Amino acid sequence: MMSIKEAERAKVAAQPATTTSGTDLVHELTETLKLAAPMALTQLGQIAMTTTDLAFIGYTGDEAVAAAGLAGTIYFVGFTLGMGLMAAVAPLAAQAYGAGDALLVRRALRTGLWAAFFIALPIMAFPLRGERILLALGQAGSTSHLAQQYLFGLAWGVIPALWFMAIRSFMGAVNRPQPILWITLAAIPANGLLAYLLIFGELGFPRLGLFGAGLATTIVNFGTFLIGLWFVTQRKPFSDYRVLTRFWRIDWALMRQIVVIGAPISIAFLLEYGLFSSAGLLMGLISTTALAAHQVALQITAILFMVPYGIGMAATVRVGHAVGRSDPAAIRRAGFVAMSLGLALSAFLTFAVVIARIAVVRFFLGGAVSGADATVGLAASLLLIGATLFIPDGLQATASGALRGLKDTRMPLLFAAISYWLIGFSAAYAFAFFTPFGAIGVWAGLSLGTAVHATLLVLRFLRLTSRFRSA
Fold it and tell me: What CA–CA distance (Å, rounded) separates 323 from 301?
């Protein structure tokens, strides 16, 4: 019977030749779509769960909604530190899979699980001290206290959430991302029901308010992790890797690789998140209407971003596979097919949003903005300007993913700092306050920074793959 390592090598041998042809491009596009579709849908599922929570919280009052927003900011800043490390599991496992090294695939996941455990402990300090942080930042005492209740419920779900992300990276790396999508789709109604029961105290459950919303998320995080672990250990082909074998042995050399690859990803995430958060602060200086319009347009942007982000995750895997089997032509092909796909879908989604921007904005604002036509109009204008943001944002997401497949994360971090802050934030501030553009100028600055970032990432990928071809 063929061993798993022999099976991996057979798959590598069956890959297309290094010369690029129309057949190779069609094959690459097909394989990228197979990976990207479930990955993008999983990301959209995560947003659906968050949106469900906010919808229920909205029924408890405006202050609770504000508190949930503040709590989400505190939670995300800490959680991002772990997200980057878990993202590093994908290129390590993908390159090992491409090389037919089943042992290294297993080590990548096992070390990722240990890395999640170690980083989760300091991450939990952020939500557990959230009220103090918010008060230090000048937030109102009552809102900060409510935010802390939510964070007390969320904090204990950090570890299972990171473990689930590590499993997700592993499954994608071995070309089987579908179970994560199934788990996420099942988690959406489970999360909604549990949040409803714990927030409002229905069917005999205690009425826990914001704490209940956070606790529901934590319970669902544990559930998704346990189901993911069951797939990994009990279902083929995942169980063939025996990921829990000698689990107690920590691979410190591989742990260092995860930190070296993952830490720059985490910081780049924070730089990007910080830019858009700071843009909100600039909007607040302009007017309340500008801030409200910005938040709506930004939420729509976040949803659109999930599609190219999923393609970027697929690009990490496809490029990693090609690196593992030492196929320079396939490395370049995988990256540029993913970028082209990301550009095409981003352009299509952007066109759809621009055409239906008024209806989309009214849908997101709902009945809460009766008579607030100024907010609707400005948000629609921001989405129109956003056409110059969405497309390069999709390109940078896929290019970033392709570079991660090469384990190249430090230079993209430098690019993020230059593009988002030196160029993007400076331009947003200048356009907003030194020109007549105002709120629209903020988004023009965001678009400029994102376009520069995308351009630098594509040029970086060109340069690195040229080195592979000439080696």
Answer: 32
State yes or no: pLDDT of 181 exceeds 80. Answer: yes
The residues, ordered by sequence, that sit 6+ positions from 203 with a Cβ below 8 Å of its Cβ are: 197
Over residues 101-128, the pLDDT tens digits come to 999 999 999 999 999 999 998 899 888 8
Average pLDDT, the chain: 86
- Could you tell me which residues come within 8 angstroms of residue 96 by beta carbon, excluding any fewer than 6 positions away? 102, 103, 104, 105, 107, 108, 173, 324
Using 50, 70 and 90 to split pLDDT, how confident is the model at 21? low
Look at the alpha carbons of 118, 124, 126, 128 in this order and tell me if their dihedral is positive or negative. negative
Please name which of 150, 299, 123, 126 lies closest in space to residue 217, comparing C-alpha atoms: 150
Write out pLDDT tens, residues 443-460.
Answer: 999 999 999 999 999 999
More confident residue, 386 or 156: 156
The number of beta carbons lying within 10 Å of the beta carbon of residue 155 is 22
CA–CA separation, 269 and 278 (whole Å): 14
Region 203-224: what's the mean pLDDT? Answer: 90
pLDDT surpasses 80 at 289? no
Mean of pLDDT values over 64-83: 82
Tokens of 323: 């690196």
Separation CA 446–CA 107 (nearest Å): 40
Rounded CA separation 279/158 (Å) = 27
- CA angle centred on 295, ends 120 and 213, rounded to 5°: 45
- Mean pLDDT, residues 455-467: 92
